[in-house]
Amino acid sequence: MIEGTLTGVYTYMARPFAALGDPPARHYDIGHKGLDIWTDMLCSDMALTNNAYGWYANFTNLLATNDFTQQENQIAWTYLYKVVNLSNIVIQNLGGNDAELPTQTTKHMMGQAKAARAYAYFYLTQLFQREYNPTQEILPLFDGESNLFAKQPASDIYDLIISDLTVAIDLLGDFQRTQKYQINKPVAQGLLAYTYAAMGMYPEAKVLADEIIATSGHPLTTTAQLAFPGAGSGFNSVNTPSWMWGFDVTPDLAYGLVSWWGIMDVYTYSYAGAGDRKAIDNALYAQIPANDIRRTQFSTAAATLLMPTNKFFHQGRVTMGQQVVETDYIYMRVEEFYLLSAEAAAMSGNDTAAKDRLKELLASRLGGAANAAAYVDPLSGDALKKAIHLQTRIELWGEGKSYLALKRNKASVTRGTNHVFLNGQTINYDETRMIFKIPIIEMNNNPNITDQN
Looking at the whole model, is its pTM more than 0.85? Predict the structure, then answer.
């Protein structure tokens, strides 16, 4: 029963209509990958270049995040707290937060459940707090034993995240997972590295990022894998060795239009294929060097201009061809930690270590070590930090990590000209429209919360 509930956490993360159900059938209600789309749109790296069906109009116009009655806020809140609730059920059925665990199986289940709870609280902090402030009261806190319905200080939320992930890393040390959707030690380390970086604890983040690189066993995505028509190309299979965490979407799940692929991929029966186009911001695209293989991830054809047709695609490559989705969901890959290690080193004043990590990543992107060195070696100080941030945006486009980087770097972004809404506008990371609002349904049902921020 406990194993079934734990598996339910993972399947819930990828489920269509995960938060609100069907009805009301909100087609952007697709679990974790829905957050990935929204956050890439918030930081403006993902442009809605044609608004054919309206699902993302209010969001890309930054209206939904300024209105607590909008369902985008409710979906994010409900989805993440449901992950907390399901994780708490597993933890309590194993004996509670401080349980003595008699077997390896129970240790492994507890480690996964605590890491899943930490994952949900981490994303809640990122979406619902403008920037890290330990004294600000931000979220209710439920750990399965104490139900604190009033907003608790960020320090208490982060303390739980760090505690959960630290315990998980220990419990999962010898866990050999059977599915890539399961959280193992390197994934828990990755979540903790992101948590430390969000808090500005860059030395701690770097230690974890470096350990993932050294011990996880995940190699860098190869040049051929990065873009079609390379051998094994496309970000569509959990079997890709660089993927640390992902979900194996199989035909028996019967995912179709209401899925990440149904929103993003022209080679799937999708909104993208029918004209609701999501593309890389053209100002960001213009900063990708001409010799960079990642530039070829994006289409130059007029009908699909700058859409990720060579990065995310069904292998059949027939427009609107994939009816029942069998392409997989990516949650985390090892490149994230080369970039986070470089960022952490630069933020800590260690330019040499930052440049070494960045060159390791870019050698296979820029056509060799010499080209990578020519790009990286002249950089230092703020210019190096900006370059690492830029490379994070390029490398991880469409994977839901750029919003986190925007906040860590306390940056602003100026939208390119290919956005339907707010094109050319400069947006700062800490504007109120850049964070989600506590939804009206929570305020109506929880008298302990009286404001949406």
Answer: yes
